[in-house]
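Why show two proteins at once? Because comparison is the fastest way to build intuition. When a single record is shown, students tend to memorize it. When two are placed side by side, the eye starts asking what differs. So, the first record is below.
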Amino acid sequence: MTPPPPLPQGVREAAVISTCNRFEILLVTDAAFLAARRVTALLAERASVPPCALRALLLVLSGDDATWHVLRVAAGLDSLVVGEAQILAQMKRCRAAAVAPGAGGGKVLGRLLAAAVHAGKRARSETDISRGGVSVSSAAVELVQASPLSPQPPEPPAPPLPPVPAAAGAR
């Protein structure tokens, strides 16, 4: 396994969560704005795009906002399909990679990611959040099956009506 690249100046810890629909970099730094600029520049250089083009696509959170975001992600609240379980496994892998010897994580990210995994487990065990579809594809299947346009089984024929007495005549 190749060692991780050196952390940008001013960044004490770093971890990455990369899934099919998200790429997040978690940083521990004393200068959030400066660290965000440096990481944006590194990403822009790697992608061969101007930093201003990349900056327009980024969401930068710090402090409590960043902490709550990580907890919401682990709980499945910030997913394309609310409650999907794959993100929790990915968060566990992120924690394991971040706290591995020689990796970019440390005590702060280790604790944050451990708390996030714990929160994700509690959200799934104490609520019905993961009751529905577990992925975009399974949610799409459920949606199609529930659609009024989807083929439905034929309704059974109506039972025969009982005879009704009828009379006609004149007095």
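Second record. Ask yourself what differs from the first in the token line.
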Amino acid sequence: MSLKLLISLISLSVLLSPAISGHHHTVKKWCGKTPYAQPCEYFLTNNPKYIKPIKHMTDFFKLSVQLALDRALHAQTHTYKLGSMCRNEREKEAWADCLELYEYTIHRLNKTVDPTTEWSNDDAQTWLSTALTSLETCQEGFEALGIADNVYPLMSNNVSMLISNTLAMNN
């Protein structure tokens, strides 16, 4: 029985290998057109959720916005958990502001990926720009208070780069 399972797994991997290899090549080609190719390639090739056909720029744009949304949700969850690490009231306020700014970012990204929302390229550009501005405001809040050395580095992630990539594609 285990020999049959092993043979089945080997057969499956041989059959899927060209498809996965082709996906990596396609992702590399499309991500190479963005300002931040490395996080684009990394996330789109290391999660089976993103193994989808990319034939047109619109396919890549939708996939990239979904990736940015997924990473923003992940970052928001991570940021929420950092509240207990705030050393003083100022850090706690900056952290709370960042949580609110992440909510705003996620809301804007959701509007862009929602298939029931009709939007133009200008609408998407506006929503993506405000999403990116929200994340930049989060960072600036810590810097303005002179407390960017404790909690903020732990919040660092690739979401801003991924949103920048979507902005570049939509422009």
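One difference worth noting in the second protein: Residues 9-20 have pLDDT under 50 and may be disordered.
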